[in-house]
Amino acid sequence: MSPRRDRQSTDASSSAARKPYTRPSTAQRTAREKLSKRLMAGDPRSDQDPQRRIPVGLSTSSVFPAGVEEGFRLAHEIGYDGMEVMVSYPKDSQDPRLLREYSERYELPILSLHAPTLFLLQGLWGRDAWVKIERTIEIAKELEVPTIVAHPPFRWQGKYATGFVEGVAALEEEHGIAIAVENMYPWRLGVRELLNYLPDHDPTDEDYAHVTVDLSHAATAGDDALEMIERLGDRLTHLHLADGSGNSTKDEHLAPGEGNQPCAEVLRRLANRGWEGSVLLEVTTSNKPEIRERTLRQSLAFARHHLGHLLEDGNEGDVGSATP
Fold first, then answer.
1. How many Å apart are CA 239 and CA 262, to the nearest integer?
2. Which residues pair with 212 in a beta bridge?
3. Reading across the β-sheet that carries 192-194, which strands appear in turn?
4. d(Cα 153, Cα 237) in Å, to the nearest integer?
5. Where are the beta strands (DSSP E) in 151-208?
6. CA dihedral (137, 176, 112, 253) positive or negative
7. Is the pTM of this model over 0.90?
8. How many Å apart are CA 229 and CA 248, to the nearest integer?
9. pLDDT tens for each residue of 152-197
10. Potential cystine with 13: which of 22, 135, 162, 243 (Cβ 3.0-4.6 Å)?
């Protein structure tokens, strides 16, 4: 038995296990009220004074259903700074040799791996959820990838769920790789929310050393992304850049600027404080190659502008290689 499983506490999360299964849906109403106030105030944006050139990478999930290599190819052609690989059913997403080959061929570092902890990937590598994270760690170590993104556990996942916070800390200590737990959102059933994650869909209040904030997930949950990044401080390791309407029960993953989330202000605040993490674009794109490429170019231009890259380059107002 691994040291992590030895260290799992059955008592530490007993109170979380007793939480109700549903609650009234209030988060989206609250989010809409906050959004309305923010927009009525003029949606103010911080002045730009970037303290660090924050890299902008592309998640391979942004080119789905095209393959992993196509993601690398497009990222190289458009000018992204690196990649996040969604470990999934395609064999090359799991193969360190092929991933290294793609990274070298397209001259793009792999900034992070997304562990297969999604609901639709529960069958990958068996039903033991810890195995999914452990095997992703082994790939990351072989490729010298510094960060793994993982979703919080579903409440029906037993000891994995009740021992998750402590287990993540043990794995980070054992392997020296950041496991950045990502914010999610409750599933909505009419006028009620299904509390499907333990300890919660929002990891910012838990004792994680590293956290990923996904702006589309925040929109769906009705969470305030600006409050989240301020609350996290240096524990924010990763940002999944996407947009959302805040009025849908779906995880929209719109291109930044196409919803009403504070994508621009989030990027400006992170750049101004010299944040040490990475921005990874994770959006839904068209099956039509020309439209997909245009979306990825426009999204990179948006990120570069609000991170202040163009100010550093002396090209304010010019999107450079991010346009065709």
1. 13
2. 182, 238
3. 22-24, 192-194, 187-189
4. 19
5. 178-182, 187-189, 192-194
6. positive
7. no
8. 22
9. 999 989 999 999 999 999 999 999 999 999 999 988 776 677 888 9
10. 162
